[in-house]
Structures are given as structure tokens and as C-alpha cells.
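Why run this: before we spend reagent on co-expression, it is cheaper to look at a predicted model of the complex and decide which construct boundaries make sense. The entries below are exactly what would go into the expression plan.
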Amino acid sequence: MTSSQNDKNQKPGMGRRRMLKSLAGIPVLGLLGIEVLRKWKYDEKHNIRKQIVNELGLDDLLDSVKTVTESKGDLIRIGIAGFGMRGPQLAQALGFMEKKQFDDAVKNGSLDAQISHGNFNVAITGICDVFDLHAAKGLEVARHDIFTGGDIARKNPVKRYSHYHDMINDPDIDAVIIATPDHHHVPMTIDAVNAGKHVYCEKSPIHREEEILPLYETVKNSDIVFQMGHQIPQNAVFQQAKEIIRRGMLGNISHVETTTNRNTPHGAWIRHLDDDGNPKPGDRRTIDWKQWLGSAPDAPFSIKRFYSWARYFEYETGLYGQLFSHEFDAVNQLLHLGIPEIVSATGGQYYYNDFGQIPDMLHTSYEYPDKGITLTYSANLTSSKTRPRTIYGRDASMTVGGHLTMTPDGDSERYAGLLEKELVDPSRPMLEILKGSSLEESIDAVSSPTTRYYASRGLTTTTIEGREWDVTHLHLKEWLDCIRNGGETSANIEMALEEAVVIAMSDISYREKCRTTWDAENKKIVRV
Amino acid sequence: MNDKPETSKWQSALLVALRFLLGWYLLYEGIYKFLDPEWSSVAFLAESTWIFKGVADWIVSNPGVLNTVDFLNTWGLTAIGLGLILGLFTKVAAIAGCALLGLYYLFNPPFIGLGTTIPLEGNYLIVNKTLIEAVMLLLIAVAPSARLLGLDTLLFNRKNK
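The model came back. C-alpha cells follow.
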């Protein structure tokens, strides 16, 4: 029987009944629709996130994040001094990678965030490293810019300089990046500035107290653009932290806690052995040891010293120059603390004995009585338990690093209303900003697992307007933009001066076992 | 003599109710994902274990692919849920739903030794709710009476039994 015959044979009313039966899902759907609407309205009304945002007036917090503009302008020719560990990272942040490494990274999808963004129109035309192997690597990297597939690099061939003086004085170099051991930073910066080159110098700004004023005065009295290698101000999270502090949301700030927590020989700068325990490459034939020593005291050639230089006070201030410098810059950018009245350090070699002089346990306090603030730096090279960088205020405390949390104080007057209504709780953050992501997803414990997941993928990138950026890329960009268009860099010479004084005060306090103060009038450190 | 087991009215009613319930569940999952702009399958995929771990990692590391997966999830769940509630292309919807839930199961199966950090509201060993739901959808697909009360009866001019 065909379906039409079937229809004809149906009794009257059958069609209507079948029609009704076929539409039985509609009421179910309607009910679901009503319930979804009810839930949506309920969620809106009980949206703690929204209530907190309104109460705190945070809805425009994202406006404090600098947007990223395109870098335009004439080609800038850059020379890099030092191509060990940090040099290649800086080159990559500029857009230069070894061809093979680049191809592999494209293949396995591991390219860093910045690769897809921003051609700076720069060429690396000079490489200077005292070690042939590192210099050869530098040349390879400089020959392949990833934005034009090597076109810029081909038109602007790179040259190796065996002495940094030659590179700095070459008129074919416009700007230099200094990524050497710390005892070279000031001599190289001063020589580069005197040769009219713009300088991007890795931390620490100084190695010894005597270097502070010559560095400051040379840069200050020049027209060059100077940037210290402290990329944290470029982090969107950091910019929001600054805004939160500016709005006084933490209340009266009394204490800032900074830390270092590492637990590997590599983290303690023991780096002269490869993974199999054999000494890394390099000998007197391939390393210009005399140039490497520079102004440091004479010492016989040592592969240990060459790779693990940060453990020796002859070349470095240790934890202060390597890591506290970042901590201090972060705090100083946020709170403008400047130079403390008193610095006091204690610590020692409790674990890594007989290898250089730097301590593996170090505790230092910085007192700012006129500002009512103390800063502490506590470093432990035998435990990697995280202790976040924390700013304590009477109304709330804030941790700020790769992401930000703000937790109300249980006795806060400012947040008494929110605490009373139990909208916020002193045992957990009332605000969490994950890598500069939008505020909407950032309040209280309602952050989505997605954003949490991304936040855990390292602290070296930041999200601005939905795009992920390498903060070093942005920091170099700021330097290059200032070279082309004028303006002030974030980690300028004024910031470097304060940091340099604080590092020298800390270093002296630790090494000479005394407290230190700063004689602002005579511009010198006093032991007390 | 007819050996074919008859489906009683109660059995049919329960099968249709089961279809509505599964439809409701899947449709709301779709709507929820649509309404929450921050939702992404990334957290689920990142926790993936067993044979699909490689695929999950690949999806997570490719934003374009991840977006496509999120899109297909949201609209797939919505379409399947609508199909089940309305009784429209019920068989296709049920099989598609079964396949989707089967994938969820395989991306993170409760096997011995495969740890997961995804919070669970129960304790599972090999069998979990996702697997049971997938099998229930198969039941909907193969039981003709589960397709009573739906647009399919009109569309395919099915005879009422």
C-alpha cells in the first residue's frame, strides 16, 4: 500500500492526531527555553563577578594596557655583543633565528608567540663574541630573519667582530645590544654611547659601585636611547597592577616581598657541564680569554668560570644582579620606591659550597621609613617552592608576576561591605587577572579553566587585545620605537641609576657584612 | 504465531521520555557553550590521556583547529539535542550523539593507571556516565518506538503501531 492510499484510508481525526503527536517535542523545547531564560536571569542577578567589578569600579581597568602599534621606520642595523644564552633569545625576539631551527619550529608548531607579529625592520649586522662557537652561531642566526625569509639579512650582511671596540666604532652599526657577563656592561655601554650608538643592555646595570656615576652621566649627557633589559613593564598584567595601585585599591602599602626560588644546579648558575657531565666546549684556542676577563682580575683560563661566571663576584654581583635586579625593577616601576635609606643583607653558601662565592641562601631588607614601606628579598637556591612577589596593603594584598591576584584583608575598612555580604573572602583572591586577559573572565574564583590553562604556560608572554606577545619582543620594540620617534623607554637611565645604587648597596652589605646607606649629597654608598 | 516481542505502551513511553531527556541534556550543553564566550574544549583536551592524547595536543596547539573543534562541539550538541527533542532525523541525531559521546569517552577513559585532574563527581572504572549515555543513544537509534512522538512521523509518514 502506498502512503497516499494509506492517508486516504485513515479515519477522520487521524491526521490531526498524528500532527499533534509529531509536535510533541515542541512543549519540551519550550520548557527548556523557559528554564534557560530563567537560569540566565538568575545568573545575571547573582553574578558575583559583575557585582565586584561594579563595586570596585574596575570596568575600565583594561584601558590601562598599552596597545601594540606597528613599528615603522628606516632600517636599524644592530650589533649584538655576547651570544651565549641571552643573546640568541634577544635575536629571536627581534625576529632572527637559525634557518633550520626556524623550519623545525614551524613543523612542530612550537614557534613562540611573537613570531607572527611585527616586523621591526632591523638587521643584525654585527656579532661580537669572544668564543668562536658562539660567534659562529650568532652569524647563522643573523643570516635568517623570519619576517622576510632572509631577505633583509641578505641585503644587510652580518659581520663578526673579534673585539667589541671594532663593532661599536663601525659606522655601519646604529645600535648595540649588550648580553655579556655583567662586568662588561658598563665599559661596553660607555664606549657605545661615546661612539653614538643606542644601547639595549641586559641586567645588571652595574657590577661595582664605582661604575654607577660614570654610567649615569655618560648616558644622561648623550642623545642615545638607553633601555635596560627589564621586560616586565611590557606585561599587560603588570600595567593593570600599576593601575590598581594608582587607584589606591590596596590601601596603605606597608611591605613588599620579593623572592627567588630555584632548586637546580643550572638555576644556581652551575653551567659548565653538559647533560652527560662532560665539560662544555671551549678552550684557550677558541676563546679570547683576555678579552673575556676585561677589567676583571687576572685569572688562569677556566671553563668553569667561562660558563658559570655568575657564581663569581669578580664578574657579577650574584643573585642581586641576576635576579633581584628584575625584582627591584618590577617593584620600582610599580611603586617608585627609589633608593632605600638602609640595606641589610645576610646569607651564605649553605649548599653549593666551594664553587665561586655567591650565596645560595640570601635575605635582604630595604627600608624606606619616609615612605612607610619595607622591601624584602629572600632567595633560596635549594627549594623551588613558589613564593609570589607580594605587595601588602591595609585593605588588600596583591601578587603580581605572570598573573595577578588581589586578596582582601579580613580587617579592611574599604572592603568591609563586600566582606560583610560575603561577596569576597580573605582566604581567596577577589580579583585574578591571568596574562592580561579580559576582566570579564578575571574576577573571583570564576575564571574559566581555559584561561587558567593558558596562564600556566609560562610567564614570558602576555595577551594584549586577544593576541599573545613575547614581552621581550615588546621591550625591544619600545627601544626601537624610541630610537625612531623619540620618547622615553620604560627601563631608562633614571630607573637604571636607582637600580644600580640598590644593587651595589645590597652587594656591599652582603660581602662586607655591614649595613649600607646612600649619601645622596655626595652620591656614594656609606657602610654603617 | 508471532515471536516478535511487542513493545508495550509503557516501554514506548519510557523510550520517548529517555529521548527527551537525552535531547534536553545535549541541547543544554550546546546552549551553555554558546552562551559562554569563554568556553573552550581546551581544558578538556589538555587533560586527555590514552590513544587520543597526541590528537588532543595537536588540536590545543593549533588555534584554528581548536576553534573549529569548539564550533563543531557547540553546534553539534545543539543540533543533536534539537533533533532528539523534536524527533527530527532522530536516528541520525542519536547515532551522531553516540559518536560524539564515544569520542569524549575515548579522549579521557576511566582506565586503570590513566590519571586525570578533571574533577569527577563519582568514581568510575572503565564504565562512566558518558559511556552509558552513548549506549542509551544507540538504543534510541535502534528502537523504532523511541521515534514516536516526533516530526519524523510526519516527515517519513511512519505508521503508528
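The interface with chain A takes residues 16, 20, 23-24, 27-28, 31, 35-36, 38-40, 42-43, 46, 58, 61-62, 82, 85-88, 148-154, 157, 159-160 of chain B (CB under 8 Å). The first helix of chain B runs from residue 9 to 35. Bring this page to Monday's planning discussion.
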